[in-house]
Design goal:
The structure holds 2 protein chains of 2 kinds. By secondary structure, chain A is of the alpha/beta class. Chain A is about 30% helix and about 25% strand. Chain A has 9 helices and 17 strands. By secondary structure, chain B is an alpha/beta fold. Chain B folds into 2 domains: about 5-215, Rossmann fold, CATH 3.40.50.620; about 230-260, no CATH class. Chain B is about 30% helix and about 25% strand. Chain B has 8 helices and 12 strands. Chain B has helices at about 30-45, 65-70, 90-100, 125-130, 185-195, 205, 215, 240-255, and strands at about 5, 25-30, 55, 75-80, 110, 135-145, 150-155, 160-170, 170-175, 200, 220-225, 235. The chains are: A alpha/beta, B alpha/beta. At the A-B interface, α3, α4, β7, β8 and β9 of A face α3, α4, β6, β7 and β8 of B. β12 (about 190-195) of chain A pairs antiparallel with β8 (about 160-170) of chain B. The structure holds flavin-adenine dinucleotide and adenosine monophosphate.
Amino acid sequence: MANEVWIYTEHKDGKLKKSALELLSGARSLANDLGTQLVAVTLGCGLEAMVKELGCYGADKVIIAENEALKSYLAVAYAQTLAGLAKQHQPAILLGPASAQGKDLFPRVAAKLGTGMASDCIKIQLDGQKLLSPVRPMYAGKALVEANIPEARPQMATVRPNVLAVAPKQEGKQVAIEKVAVDAPKDLKTILKEIVKGAKETVDLTEANVIISGGRAMKAADNFKILWELAEAFGSGTTVGASRAAVDSGFAPADMQVGQTGKVVNPTLYIACGISGAIQHLAGMRTSKFIVAINKDADAPIFQKADYGIVGDLFKVVPVLTEEVKKLKAQD
Amino acid sequence: MKQVPDTETKIRIKDDASGIVTDGIKWVMNPYDEYAVEEALRIKEKKAGSTVAIISMGPKRSVEAIRTGLAMGADTGILIDDPALEGADCYATAKALAKVLEPEKFDLLLCGKQAIDDDSAQVPQTVAELLGIPQAMVIEKLIISDDGKKATCYRRVEGGAKEVLEVELPAIIAAEKGLNEPRYASLPGIMKAKSKPLKEVNLAALGLKAEEVGAKGAKLKVKKYSLPADKAPGKIVPGEPEDAARALVKMLREEAKVV
Ligand SMILES: Cc1cc2nc3c(=O)[nH]c(=O)nc-3n(C[C@H](O)[C@H](O)[C@H](O)COP(=O)(O)OP(=O)(O)OC[C@H]3O[C@@H](n4cnc5c(N)ncnc54)[C@H](O)[C@@H]3O)c2cc1C
Ligand SMILES: Nc1ncnc2c1ncn2[C@@H]1O[C@H](COP(=O)(O)O)[C@@H](O)[C@H]1O
């Protein structure tokens, strides 16, 4: 059946990424409104066991494009394969995650297919003409734009992680799995030499549900310890971020920076500790569902954006937060 | 290289929601493109005989950003400027850029990972595909092989991990923060830049038709711009720090339901 809604399903180390479940959950209603199937597409090999679960999150069908050469991700190889499948099946819509991989891959696929694409969307919906009409932030979230792709197909978009809620799992729901042996991609001119692991195996900032961030007020790298302790109290899905001033002062590594020139994050809870709330920092975290600010200065701009604020010394506040969160979690 | 509004710019939307109000905006070189220009200059300094050209598509004002690049040390500049280019999406932009960027003319195409106005992070990959060359996006370390045929690129991915990619040149490589520390243009640099060649080309010169680029060639059509909804003012939790902290955790559990 043509006109399907397709979800590009990202996986890592043999496990589905949460984005796949988010996209399926969010796109289910699009497929219903269009009266079409929701199809999860995944590339690689040996993925059968992993994809069975996708039915429980709304997929009607899974397509696995198999080839040994697709074992690890490479832009040119994956773009050839995904664009090839899309050409053959002509889906109406093709959605993917605005993750490191999705951001790398999707524009190249769109170019191959000669179609349009909206990147890093925070809302996916159909308009009155039943066209995909996603909303995406521009100018670091200072403006929103709604756009559509009236003619070219498929209508492509990447969606920011953590924006779409994962629907409750429908246990035991079966899904049709179609395995396609695809040709080895050619003319890659690229080799993946290795993947160097990060220092800490924690959830990525862009995927975290709770983020505790420290600013210049942390005063030293060592002091970030108290933020990590609070993160630990919250449990899995929590990590620690930093302002640029904290990164530039050497208190935290660059990949922890949140903001316009750092990462754009979208957690349920963002706790800013000793961060003034400069516009470039806000650009990276303003879409967080709940923002907590802890700052000594009652006039700090961060309080304008915060849902809850404490005017006080973070070194006094944070340890108590850790204790209290631990207490609550112990009762659960 | 793209010229964009300064990061401090307060964004206002036009009454008809068709775009932003551009009066009074301070225009600068896209911050990620500064890393790209700096990296190009460092490679040039190591490799005798190589030159750096800056290519930008945009309205006339973009000349200033090109001059900044020339003042930093680039050799030549090209501005693609034509009224018909207005309203381009990433695809249409890439199409126009690809027309001046024939692979036989360069060894390496450096750019930023993202333009901080449209925040698309799409143009480089699209250009790479249109030209049929490899890409390496979000690169924070770059090593060119001695024979100039290959580049080793450290690409930042999730969880602090890095992919180490080896691409054959010519390739398109997009800079991430941390790639280098961009230099400032020196006064002599600024003086010299005034006499460096800066060419302006229009559609006719490129042999492109108006239907292929700009608003007409765009595949993604903007329907409307809006401002994000303002947040309701938050609550300051009163009391001494320790008491406030206890009260806050309670609110996070009961009201926000996030603990
Ligand atoms: C092009 C450009 C890009 C940028 N990109 C980014 C970016 O991506 N991310 C980013 O974060 N910034 C970015 N910046 C920098 C930004 O403008 C600010 O300089 C930076 O965010 C400030 O960091 P800060 O809030 O930690 O430090 P400050 O502004 O110095 O604020 C420290 C705060 O801590 C409070 N404080 C001090 N001691 C305590 C204490 N004991 N307890 C509680 N509070 C305390 C102070 O009251 C103050 O409000 C960028 C700037 C430019 C020009
Ligand atoms: N109009 C343009 N002219 C020249 N380069 C551009 C243009 N638009 C985007 N780029 C390049 O592509 C990068 C990513 O831009 P974007 O895909 O728009 O986020 C930028 O950092 C620039 O290096």
